[in-house]
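Q: What structure does this chain adopt?
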Amino acid sequence: MSEYKNFIKDFPSRCGDLLLTYEKRSRFHGREVTLMLSIASAGLTIPYERIRSYHPSGDSRRYVEAKKMVDSLLKEKFLESVLAKENEGSWCRGVLNSHLGDPDSWPEMNSPIPLSAKEKNKEVLHHIRNALAHGNIYTLGREISTIIFLSETDYQSGKFNYITSSPDDFCKFLRNWFKFIGQLNLPQEVSTGIISDHYEDLEDVVNV
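A:
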């Protein structure tokens, strides 16, 4: 088993490999949402946290150019960014007054509010990161039609902000995230052995 060169590019790139390698098989067995959430919990959360200024790893100071690229991405409008490329417009965001009961009974899910065109990547990624880290993940439908990510508005109100997406759009989002991660500028000494377009090459192989 080869060592990780780093946890902001090498590790998530391997997570992207897993998504592409097992995506079709997981769909055949009805486990595609399980696969996506499992991979996102590590492949999104870990690099997102490691590159932040306060993380004890010091990666934000070690990989300055990569940090600049991530900061630039976070400032972009989500629906216009590379992360939402080829999505089918299923992303929604609003406030859930109560998370009690079955998600299919939540009235807010009957007419969810489409994600604003002004919403920045920073807000969307931070919300999804919080939901994954705290286990605030729900789904709609016997055949899952929607993935729900909850993040508390505050600790006293009992209300939650929600972001929802179809499984297909979330899968596209993850693919786009891993492609972006694969393009981060890292010093040559930690990039050795990481092929810049490896993700695209693997995707071509898997889709044959």
